[in-house]
Design a protein that fits this description.
Radius of gyration: 28 Å
CATH architecture of the largest domain: 3-Layer(aba) Sandwich
Distance between the termini: 80 Å
Pfam families: E1_dh, Transket_pyr, Transketolase_C
Cofactor: thiamine diphosphate
CATH superfamily of the largest domain: Thiamin diphosphate (ThDP)-binding fold, Pyr/PP domains
Shape: elongated
Strand order of the largest sheet: 10-9-11-12-14-13-19
InterPro entries: DH_E1 (IPR001017), THDP-binding (IPR029061), Transketo_C/PFOR_II (IPR009014), Transketolase-like_Pyr-bd (IPR005475), Transketolase_C (IPR033248)
Keywords: Oxidoreductase, Thiamine pyrophosphate, Tricarboxylic acid cycle
Number of domains: 3
Number of strands: 21
CATH topology of the largest domain: Rossmann fold
Oligomer: single chain
Organism: Nocardioides humi
């Protein structure tokens, strides 16, 4: 442990870069003073959280970093991003919501980012940046490029699950990560004095990290300490935890009435203002008062010029609303499955998944696979067995920490890797939904297109084995409802192989949902170069009387029903969606126009599922084609039951599909 610096400010040794550190702190202070005024006057509309009084922490920390090192920030992130080199004009324009803002007005104060400068984002979710920084550090570890990641967070974040999961992963993997806690005496409205001070050091020790406490109001103390700490982390000694003791001079947010604050505490900390302490260092180094005043005037002029330029910037064009939601989909030509003597041997779904992972690990060194038990254990279903030995360090076991798994995938993807992260059961995505919904899916949009997140998330689902309500859910509709995510659900081995390869190639996040009851099902073989485009449905069988649109296991069940109903004189066209986000509306509506009747079959519960969306689109865009009501074949709107007798009643399959087809065919137009 490093004790809090006790030296009087005027006896700390002068640094050659002291004048630059002082200027950078002034720039942050004046930026935030102007931001406060613009918020008061209604020019800035969104939430604004200021870091006045904390400027020494980011400036001193960044002084110890290389330009290509990575930081993650917080909702109180102006100081961090400006210290890392963010342009003043772009930062102001972003807060003003202008097209010329750092992120084209898509991020605002809480989400400002510039990955090109190593700024992986301020973050509106407390603690969420920790696992993302761990992911950036993972990329550095795998590449061996000597980079370090720093995650800034407040003392309140140390209570969040994301903090603890990110710290667990960092400790287990020995990541080059500095976890920097700005203990500014308040967690929103709650004073730090209500917590046990020794907890910070204890937490660091429990994760195998070195612990360091520094005077967060003295930029020289911070810079000196962080140079030593960062050097140790960069040399491979594992992650470090730094507590920078500082003070939040303003409220939790602008407009905070501050009724919870002790005036004596405020006055005591005001005497240790970080800019005043820096100026004491300058005076000790021979600077005169008029020299310091000249710097104030110079920075003020710089800030005002940035304000003027930012205010002159245009607002985003209303027609640009849909820009930056996701990257442009890759153009993929589906390779037809070979037939006849050229056809490879049939293969199992599970082996197709493993083959796709092996192919991409061999092809691209930026691909790695991580998740619970995917390494030594080879996945709970054995899908990855042996890959850890084939690709040392690139098929990695993680702690049981789903938030850290997805967050690390996000950070590694932002750093240029192509991670394939496994969540053992789709139900467990609820544990890490923030990293999926608020981070992976939205980062490209919030950064105005400055970042891509080429992240693949593999998971599986399926009822029928009495796994109960927490291991059987079909949650594809919830995922498809999140802008920025792509969701695929293959039903055959060839599609499992081709869609997984396409997902890994995509520059936007893709969730691949496999069906565990299909793992040992066989299907036609395929060549190693086989790919399937995301967002393209497959017509499994041509028909003329009714269209059945289905997904995953239900596509196979629908195909079996279609073959049986031939004997009854019913011609069924079966469309396997394969992708539920995006849906191939051209194929779906085209089939409806041909048959004039539509049945939608999915394993998920009825209400608010993808079947409801398909029915709504059919009534809207396909209304004049419909000769009968759209019918849905779905599970009842209850959790999946455990008792086999109840589960048999709950799970839908061929019987229910056949009944729906007969019913719609019997409808009189």
């Amino acid at each position: 442990m490093t004790d809090l610096q006790q030296h009087p400010s005027d006896v700390l040794p002068a640094r050659a870069d002291l004048a630059d550190l002082h200027r950078k702190m002034l720039r942050i202070r004046m930026f935030e003073d102007r931001a406060a005024t613009f918020y008061r006057d209604g020019v800035i509309r969104g939430f604004v959280h200021l870091s006045v009084g904390q400027e020494a922490v980011p400036v001193g920390t960044v002084a110890a970093l290389r330009p290509d090192d990575v930081i993650t920030s917080t909702h109180r992130g102006h100081g961090h991003v400006l210290a890392k080199g963010l342009d003043l004009t772009g930062a102001f324009a972003e807060l003003f919501g202008r097209e010329t803002g750092t992120n084209h007005g898509r991020g605002g104060s809480m989400h400002i980012a510039d990955p090109g400068l190593g700024i992986f984002g301020a973050n509106g979710i407390v603690g969420a940046g920790v696992p993302i920084a761990a992911g950036a550090a993972t990329a550095a570890l795998l590449r061996g490029d000597g980079k370090v990641a720093v995650s800034f967070f407040g003392d309140g974040a140390t209570s969040t699950g994301a903090f603890h999961e990110g710290a667990t992963l960092a400790g287990d993997w020995g990541l080059p990560l500095v976890m920097l806690c700005e203990n500014n005496q308040f967690s929103e409205f709650t004073g730090t004095h209500m917590k046990r001070p020794e907890l910070m050091e204890a937490r660091a020790g429990s994760y195998g990290m070195s612990f360091h406490r520094v005077d967060g109001n003295d930029v020289v103390a911070v810079a000196d300490a962080l140079e030593r700490i960062v050097a140790d982390v960069r040399s491979g000694r594992g992650p470090a935890f730094v507590e920078a003791v500082t003070f939040r001079a303003r409220g939790h947010y602008e407009g905070d009435q501050l009724k919870y604050r002790d005036p004596d505490l405020v006055a005591a900390w005001a005497e240790r203002d970080p800019i005043q302490i820096a100026e004491q260092h300058l005076a000790a180094a021979g600077w005169r008062a008029d020299d310091i005043a000249a710097v104030h005037a110079s920075v003020a002029a710089e800030v005002e010029a940035a304000v003027e330029a930012a205010l002159a910037g245009p607002e985003p064009d209303r027609g640009s609303l849909f820009e930056y939601v996701r990257t442009t989909p890759r153009t993929v030509a589906e390779t037809p499955l070979p037939t006849g003597p050229e056809a490879p041997e049939p293969t199992r779904y599970s082996r197709a998944v493993k083959a796709a992972l092996r192919y991409e690990l061999e092809r691209d060194p930026s691909v790695f696979v991580a998740g619970i038990d995917v390494g030594e254990g080879g996945n709970v279903f054995g899908l990855t067995r042996g890959l850890a030995a084939e690709f040392p360090g690139r098929v990695r076991d993680t702690p049981i920490a789903e938030t850290a798994i997805i967050g690390a995938g996000v950070g590694a993807a932002m750093a240029g890797m192509r991670p394939v992260m496994e969540i053992m059961y789709a139900d467990f995505l609820g544990v890490c939904l923030d990293q999926l919904m608020n981070q992976a899916a939205k980062l490209r949009y919030m950064t105005g297109g400055k970042v891509s997140v080429p992240l693949t998330i593999r998971t599986q689902f399926g009822a029928g084995r009495s796994s109960g309500a927490q291991h059987s859910q079909s949650i594809e509709a919830m995922l498809a409802h999140i802008p920025g995510l792509q969701v695929v659900m293959p039903s055959t081995p060839a599609d499992a192989y081709g869609l997984l390869r396409s997902a890994i190639h995509e520059d936007s996040p893709v969730v691949v949902i496999e069906h565990r009851l299909l793992y040992e099902k066989s299907g036609p073989g395929f060549h190693p170069d086989h790919v399937v485009p995301i967002g393209k449905a497959a017509v499994l069988r041509e028909g003329t009387d009714v269209t059945v649109v289905a997904v995953s296991r239900m596509a196979r069940e629908s195909l079996a029903v279609a073959e049986e109903l031939v004997a009854e004189g019913i011609s069924v066209e079966v469309v396997d969606l394969r992708s539920v986000a995006p849906i191939d509306w051209e194929t779906v509506l085209g089939s409806l126009a041909k048959t004039n009747r539509l049945v939608v079959a999915h394993e998920a519960v009825s209400d608010f599922g993808i079947g409801a969306e398909i029915a709504a689109r059919a009534v809207d865009e396909g209304f004049w084609s419909l000769d009968a009501p759209v019918l849905r074949v779905t599970a009842p709107f209850t959790p999946a039951p455990y008792a086999p007798a109840l589960e048999r009643e709950w799970v839908v399959g061929q019987r229910q599909i056949a009944e729906a087809v007969r019913r719609t065919v019997d409808s009189v137009p």
